[in-house]
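Blinded run. Sample ID left blank on purpose so nobody reads anything into the name before looking at the predicted structure. Input follows.
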Amino acid sequence: MAFLVLGIGTLTACSSTDPSVEDDHVVRMPIVLAIPANNAELTTGSAGAKATRAEGDPGTYEKFELPKYLYIYLINTSINGTDKVVLTPEGMNLQSGYTLKADKWTKTITTDNKDSIYTYTDQIRIIIPENRSEGVVYAAMSTVPIAVTYTGTGVEDATFTLGDDVKDKSEALKNLYSSPYNLNNSNGYYGIVNDYKSNSPYINMVLYHVASKLDVQWNVDAKVQDKVKLSKITLTGLSRGGKLFKPLENTESSSTYDETFTLDAGNQWYGRKATYVIPVQTDGKYQFPMTLTNSLSSEENKDRSTTAKAEPSTSSAIFVPWIYGTVKVTKW
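Blinded prediction complete.
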């Protein structure tokens, strides 16, 4: 998971880059970002990678990259409650997001001394208008630029898409985090800014994975191993985009792509591979179509289509699960 801590102070603006905001009636809200940095020694030899426990993964650690792009949206409601506007940080490009500087991350310890985190130390600010009664934040971080789309002020329904030029989509999805729209605290949605109408509004948020970790295991029955030697397993129709803040509510894939696992003599009959995917439910279940390639078959008979039986690690309605998929080959 990734931690987003919004530390909010009050600064009177002498000038504003936003012509719609009066200079004498604004405050600028500094933002501090952080992600966990567990077992950092596991990153040895991997430039730019940081290790942390994968959300939902039962007991394994992985290497994660520090985020490079920020997408954060503050929905401001007017005092009379009738007008809403979406505000973004100074310097944030609506198409490519806010670029985070690699040299501005510093390793620190959480206030409860229970964890180490990497904190983004450069200043990021959002202009807050005087005409405000409620502020609601939705945020996402990524290692690659993503295209974010929403209508009006409906940020919670925003969708995203990875660019065509993203070569390793699994890696990009692994390092994509957002604030789930249905994660609540005692005040409601956890992205509601505390004391927003005061001179000292503040909010602390934790960002979670948008993509599930898919663990695929295959097994070729001993009775057919003389006829079957798998050389490739290709996951087909994976989604390159989805709902950014409602990651468990995808019911169809969009901008699809395929991902291929190349096998050798060590795993031609049984093995296990993991990747990150956008979870898509069909009829309430996770299904992952794939093509198995048999190196012992003739050209016209070498590929077979099947669907992995997928079991999520949790039935949570908020956080994306670790998913375990199995395929057993009993005939060809």
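Unblinding after everyone has recorded impressions. Residues 68 and 143 are 5 Å apart (CA to CA).
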